[in-house]
Amino acid sequence: MVRMATYGLPLPTRYCLVAGSGEGYSCLNAFDAALLAAGIGNMNLLKVSSILPAGARQVSEISLPPGSLVPTAYAALTSDIPGEVISAAVAVGHGSHAEYGVIMELSGRRPAREIEAEIRRMVEDAFAKRGRKLLEVQVKSIEHVVRRTGCAFAAVALLYDEVLYDRHHTPTCSVGLRSDQDQAAGDEQGAAELNQV
Asked: Is domain 10-169 given the CATH code 3.50.20.10 in the classification?
């Protein structure tokens, strides 16, 4: 079941760590190639800040129709300097399963092992700032040596348990949004109730 947030948007219930790198004609093409290598190149990524909802469970792959909107916390770095080493990483910090997690993203012009060590420290600091006990850190990273124009990309994609699609891949689930007609009808009903008071 899709869990609803207070004001209508569904809370993600799953997450997936992905990473990829690639080369392209331009920086944008290299970014696109890295997304394809990570397995999310045919989705529309909505960049979000870094909180994992409580109780969200990890999945190993993403299977959604092309064009799906996917909330994603990610790090990416492109370079057109041949021979340069670039890396990107994401990390998820977990405390109690009943509490939310914290996601961190980092990229840099250095080896992945250095990025991984730093991002772990970032997660530790984030938990310390919140006064919470850190129990586990998950890290996903990628390192790339640029040939012409390259990109390194790592992400945590936030997903949902149930999104219903019809045969045209049109979302049919409600997320608490109302049309202008529904809004007008609600306003008229509210006015009528006030007149009766």
From this structure: yes
